[in-house]
Design goal:
The longest helix has 19 residues. Helices cover 50% and strands 3% of the residues. It has 17 helices and 4 strands. Helix 2 crosses helix 14 and helix 15 crosses helix 16. A two-stranded antiparallel sheet has the order 1-2. A hairpin with a 6-residue loop joins strand 3 and strand 4. Its main location: membrane.
Length: 359
């Protein structure tokens, strides 16, 4: 992702609740990855087999079959599990760096399947929660205040940009089908994954297979008169319908089909075309097509049907007054160029000549 030059402007502004994302908008969608997820989650397969499958375990196995995914996953697991001392369980800074490398360098078809796999039991959900090694990367002895954690994140330009991007792409919208801005699941899931490896790292709060609740490691205790703002900030994670729907959709291998917004048109019944005599064998397909088009248009005019202003019919009526060279895009107006004798006139002259000879 490319940082926009405008980031330096809002970095020095006051503490706004939502800040503009410095990243370019995501316009692509996750349909292809959703289809992959549906295969591995068992969608469309035998329900009995699907219910017994641990899809998060399947995702880890798939990662091990890819050299890059296996290498970077093994790296962050080793670093995040390395105990420094009896009082320090790990080096969180190095753990975060290894996690960022994993999610930035491994294709999302692997990382998303590990983060957002669907679960039918607690064992699967616990594996999903353990994906980022939360004992090192996520949890701490005490939970800081969420607004204090946000303040720490905003002192780092990269953490600040990822948080702003999450708010831009996952903020609940009640004017869309999915509750996501522009109905784009990909943008939300990508922004969520982009925060892993920073102070604002989110994760699943428990190993429940039925309810999906994610949160950064923080609470709103000690917020004072800022408690309302703190609760609002926390709800963007814990009670976010856009994020919840996106995670569930990925796990189920489904995506919303968003049609372009615009005026709806009623279908117009096709005009009845009268059967025409068979054409000689020496005429080309293009000539036959042109004759069919002209017959259709003539039929519409003769029947007096009302037609809409569609492109097809507009072209159709135009061809009634023009001659199209077969196999070419060139259109010749009737009055342009040298005129050719009509076949009907030639046949009439030949008939008169034969009658005179007979007399």
């Amino acid at each position: 992702m490319i940082l926009a030059n405008a980031f330096c402007l809002f970095f020095f502004l006051g503490e706004e609740f939502y800040e503009a994302s410095p990243y370019e908008p995501v316009t692509s969608r996750l349909s292809d990855i959703f289809r992959l997820a549906s295969i591995f989650s068992g969608t469309g397969a035998d329900p009995v087999v699907s219910a017994k499958s641990n899809h998060c375990l399947d995702a880890a196995k798939a990662c091990n079959l890819n050299d890059n995914c296996k290498k970077l996953r093994s790296s962050y697991i080793s670093i995040c599990n390395r105990e420094i001392s009896p009082t320090e369980r790990c080096n969180r800074r190095k753990c975060h760096k290894a996690l960022r490398q994993f999610f930035d360098r491994v294709p999302s078809e692997y990382t998303y399947r590990m983060l957002f796999c669907s679960c039918q039991d607690q064992a699967c959900a616990e594996r999903r929660r353990q994906t980022i090694l939360p004992s090192c990367s996520y949890e701490d002895k005490e939970k800081p205040n969420c607004l204090d954690l946000r303040g720490v994140c905003r002192t780092d330009h990269l953490c600040r940009s990822r948080l702003a991007d999450f708010h831009a792409n996952c903020r609940a919208s009640y004017q869309t089908v999915t509750s996501c801005p522009a109905d784009n699941y990909q943008a939300c899931l990508g922004s969520y994954a982009g925060m892993i490896g920073f102070d604002m790292t989110p994760n699943y709060v428990d190993s429940s297979p039925t309810g999906i609740v994610v949160s950064p490691w923080c609470s709103c205790r000690g917020s004072g008169n800022m408690e309302e703002e703190c609760e609002k900030f926390l709800r963007d994670f814990t009670e976010n319908p856009c994020l919840r729907n996106a995670i569930q959709a990925f796990g189920n291998g489904t995506d919303v089909n968003v049609s372009p917004k615009g005026p709806s048109f009623q279908a117009t019944q096709a005009p009845r075309v009268e059967k025409t005599p068979s054409l000689p064998d020496d005429l080309s397909d293009s000539t036959s097509l042109g004759t069919s088009v002209i017959t259709t248009c003539t039929s519409v005019q003769e029947q007096g049907l009302k037609v809409n202003n569609s492109k097809e019919l507009s072209m159709c009526f135009t061809e009634l007054t023009t001659n199209i060279i077969p196999g070419s895009n060139k259109v010749i107006k009737p009055n342009s160029g040298p005129s050719r004798a009509r076949p009907s006139a030639a046949l009439t002259g030949l008939s008169v000549l034969m009658l005179k000879l007979a007399l």
